[in-house]
## 1
Amino acid sequence: MSELVRIENLQVYYPIRSGFLNRITDNVKAVDDVSFVIEAGKTYGLVGESGSGKSTIGKSLVGLEDPTSGKILFEGKEVTTIKQKKALNYNKDVQMVFQDSQSSLNPRKTIGEIIAEPLKSFGVPGKIEAGYQGERSFDQVLIDQRVLELLEIVGLPARTITQYPFQFSGGQRQRIGVARALASNPRLIVADEPVSALDLSVQAQVLNFMKKIQRDYGISFLFISHDLGVVKYMTDNIAIMHNGRFVEVGTTADIFNNPQHIYTKRLLSAIPSLNVRERGEKRAIRKAVEQEFQNNKTKYYEKDGTRDKAYDLAPVAGSMTHFSAVKREEN
Ligand SMILES: Nc1ncnc2c1ncn2[C@@H]1O[C@H](COP(=O)(O)OP(=O)(O)OP(=O)(O)O)[C@@H](O)[C@H]1O
């Protein structure tokens, strides 16, 4: 297992100002002395209630926030501050996917322009066919080639290159966000609540798609979520956060099967609502599967233990592995 990112004793404090002179009188300890390692090709999950400090860790990692103290190492090199990150061109290797694809995609730019942004900043991999005599610059041709390739990777048709974000569904916009993140061939993607704004059946598609990208390109994820079902499905290791600190860390299986800390137990015991939620999710997914089969003029039935295309819609929550459906051609 090779180590990609090491975070040592990270602290991020935000000043609180008050009074007539707007002086700093205190600070919010958003992240208070956390350390962890993200392995290459693996997914590390941060779980915790709202305000526990998850996003602040993500922001420090991608360079949207300078830590108060502590160290961030990428492949052994220090990239703690924004200045150090710039010096090593680190942002090429680490990209972010946000929860709100509506506001993270510029509404005035086409999909082609949005996906091309990192290519313009970091350069385009690839080469032009020998003998090219077109009027467009080499760079522009390479950018277009790469954008089309990225659209194909995220499953969007080539014609969408000239469309605008408002012309897409939430799930499709999230795919565009992932395409943009993938453009610079990153080693790590910080995904901050990437599916919490999506319908359940669309959540499943986007999560499975992120897993596929990880398999195909060996990308690591820092996966931030308050949804334990999603985290159980997506991650290899988890840290449970509370008030800026890690209260428990471990493999996903250990944390779910054998939680030690009282706070983790409390979080997990809130999942009985999962049973209720799970039934709701099953219904939602069954509906999506039905719809898909109707569209394809096929019949279906459910059967445990059988795996096929429809099954890929199912496991939104890690606990839903028993639900499956089988696609049958009509006679
Ligand atoms: N720019 C900022 N200035 C001041 N305080 C901030 C700032 N950003 C975050 N905070 C505070 O830091 C703490 C941690 O916030 P953070 O967004 O990291 O939590 P979170 O666990 O990601 O929450 P959520 O799930 O709601 O996004 C909170 O108390 C928040 O109010």
## 2
Amino acid sequence: MGRKFVVGGNWKMNGDKNQINEIVNNLKKGPLDPNVEVVIGVPAIYLAYVKSIVPDTIGVAAQNCWKVPKGAFTGEISPAMIKDVGADWVILGHSERRTIFGEKDDLVAEKVINIGLSQRSDCFQCFFMNSNNEKLPFQVAHALESGLKVIACIGETLEEREAGKTEEVVFRQTKALVPAIGSNWDKVVLAYEPVWAIGTGKTATPQQAQDVHASLRNWLSTNVSPEVAANVRIQYGGSVTGATAKELAARPDIDGFLVGGASLKPEFVDIVNATQ
Ligand SMILES: O=C[C@H](O)COP(=O)(O)O
């Protein structure tokens, strides 16, 4: 079976109730290609509101979460809370989280693993190996059935690209996620977002994006399994617009988009429908 095209709209820290109503009305009007999975990434404070007004055919994602179910973590939200308000996705490891808030590969992996572990009711104290082969304790005092799906973001900076390190960086970022994801690859979408293309108006060319997606799939085949490589969906993100989406979508290893700025605008419908 082919990979279902998946388009995420990451609103980032934008929108108020009026703007959200407009965006959702526009999505309802569509029409949206029924063969495309659509997920909107909503600011945490509006998750419940959006869930209450959006059709069930559209997935709702938080843009971040912390790595344990509950506790003294002022300002954070947990996967259990996201699930509790009816959302079923979370975006993790976005480059803005990595660069502005200093989130490193291992923290992103710990957040991902919490989502996998929270489905295990027998897991009170778990460990996983980080990318430096250190055994990290992971306390799950009250294991939860969160069952969230994850959009895991990776991507290189301009400096890294110009130094010829694109593959090294995206492989390293993906490698950190592998032990955390375990056998839950069917609940994960990878989003390749070159940092230099985010919010800059500079889209990677379709060939540049395709090349990285194909290398990543190849890496997954060798380092995880040919089955995961064949089935995992890899989104492209970075200044995607209604005008650039079609050409990008035509590349064989681009399985969708993670859209920032344009997801707030009516053209998001054209991006969702890019494979038509
Ligand atoms: O999560 C989305 C990406 O950061 C892309 O944002 P952008 O479409 O505004 O460049």
## 3
Amino acid sequence: MRTDMLTSLIIANTEKDTANVKTVGGETFEPMIDEEIRGNLVDAFVAGTDSTANTFCYITYYICKHPNMKQKMISEIDSVFSNKPYLTSDDLLKLKYCEAIIKESSRMIPVTNFASRYMTEECEVAGYKWVSGTMFHLNIMGVNSHPKIWSNPEVFDPDRFYNVDQDDDKNKYSLIIFGGGPRICPGRKLAMGELLLLMASVYRHYNVELVNMDEPLKIVTASANNVQELKVRISPRIN
Ligand code: HEM
């Protein structure tokens, strides 16, 4: 069997031998019908395209504004590429400074400002009782720029995430670009892999510069923070 997403959706919960129904802990799981498979694919395209494309624009903007950091990133990319024609998934794990840049760019401008939760039961949050039917909006932008959590939150500084313990509480709960809990973004690992590969592939071969270094990033905020325009000058690198 191939391991692509469509195959995985088609064979999900399919017993290979006889029956098409699987029972786990008394619950029955059946293969998805075509509409469900289509729905999952549409979800992935809708949630996974603009999010990653916009994040790549934020990254481009911030590193072009900070030439020293850009140079450090390029040195890392060159050292991991070495003389290889392409990168493996293991190589991507070595791009620690690039990963820090992705996180810091997303902290400065998250793709979405809010994640929402609808309470189906009465609950207690922050010492208050809330009735069933309450809708909570998690303020992602607010958390990612909270001065109690981040020193100088308005300053772009990838070192916040470079060579630090990724599992400490601050990293786990204070940077919520992908949401959290059972509804956390299911595409987060794919998105990180895509962004690392794109950064490495572009900056290995090209110089990218902002056409106008003084122009602020033009963003239109709807459900996502969409980059309206980002003019860059691209030229081949001379190695
Ligand atoms: C940089 C890229 C991305 C960012 C910043 C991002 C961010 C988010 C956020 C904040 C949520 C809400 C999570 C929550 O409510 O706790 C979400 C949900 C979701 N994302 Fe992503 N995402 C990205 C890429 C992707 C990709 C590549 C895919 C799929 C291929 C994807 C598929 C989804 C889906 C299906 C949901 C809804 C999950 C649910 O409601 O159970 N996302 N994403």
